Amino acid sequence: MKKLLRLAIATSLVTLIPLSAFSQGEKPSCKWLEKPVDDQTFKTFQDFFAYDRTLPFKMQSIGVEESEGIRSEHLSFQSTPGEQVFANLYRSAGADNKKIPALIFLHGGTPQGKDAAHYINLAETFVRAGWAVLAIDMKYFGERSTELLTTFTENEKHDKLYNNPPLFLDWTIQTVKDVQRSFDFLVDQAGVNSKRIGLVGFSRGAVIGSITGGIEHRLAATVLLYGGHFDALETGHLPAACPANYIGRISPRPLLMVNATQDTDFIRETSVLPLYALAKSPKKIVWTEGGHGVLTDEARSQILQWLQENIK
Fold first, then answer.
1. pLDDT tens-digit series, residues 211-258
2. Which of 71, 228, 239, 283 falls between 20 and 30 A from 209, CA-CA?
3. Which sign does the torsion angle of CA 23, 108, 177, 255 carry?
4. 297-310 and 117-128 are packed helices; what angle lies between their axes, rounded to 10 degrees?
5. Is 124 helix (H, G, I), strand (E, B) or coil?
């Protein structure tokens, strides 16, 4: 009964605005970006993300590769009943997991999920700087793909997932739980120090990362790369799946956002800056020239320096 009541509260607050309701050039608005929900309402959201920490991981090692000093283990583990997460665990060959910090990585909306070449390259960048990285597939992407998405075009992703408020909320909840279980996995199975684990999200992974960072307070730091509030094709979402209701709750843990001045997906003035304004200190934003997801060498260096300063 309590669960149904919480769901009714969340559903009753939906903002869903069809694009046809706007003249050319106008964008949908979101009342939570202007004023996030109060603490009492937020407590009803927190219950959505509760999970069973005693559930067996049923971890399976699918394969191990070593190349240029980097060890990559392809594995899977049980997140919640009926949900198996596929992941790549990257670390320096011979590294002691108890002595190195770790990052949980959430990919963007690419069909390959965690296995897209640019995400592998980024993970290896972190490893060379002394980090372990657990890159996981989000549901409907990569090794967790289903019949929901087949072409992975922007229109399909938005029509079937991002602009489907009930399904997007379910997907958001599952992904947050997957990150929480990833945290547990790194500590319980890989032996990583629980105080030295951060989260990095890229594009759509950054959207979910802003929510996860506000829920999972064990994370030492949160990095959001090329994310924001609404992207260029989003029309609305439920309040329990709105980044605006979570990003201010990442504090007092540090937050870094990296965004592009010419991004036409997560637009600086309407999507990024209003969301960043809701975040509380300690926070930092880095702007790169160019379009969406173009991570420059200078930005990579700034990210690594920030991580070293904020996850001891």
1. 999 999 999 999 999 999 999 999 999 999 999 999 999 999 999 999
2. 71
3. negative
4. 50
5. helix
- The encoded tokens of residue 145 equal 């793909």
pLDDT of residue 29: 77
Contact 195, 182 (CB under 8 A): no
- Under the phi-then-psi rule, with left for phi > 0, alpha for psi from -120 to 50, and beta for the rest, what region is 140? left
Report how far residue 260's alpha carbon sits from residue 227's, in angstroms, rounded to the nearest whole number: 10
Q: What is the reported pLDDT for 125? A: 98
Tokens of 186: 């790194």
188 CB burial (10 A radius; 0-12, 13-18, 19+)? middle
Q: From the centroid of its chain, how far is CA 176?
A: 8
Question: How far, in whole angstroms, is CA 220 from its chain's centroid?
Answer: 15
Amino acid (1-letter code) at residue 249:
R
DSSP structural state of residue 87: E
Q: Is the pTM of this model over 0.90?
A: yes
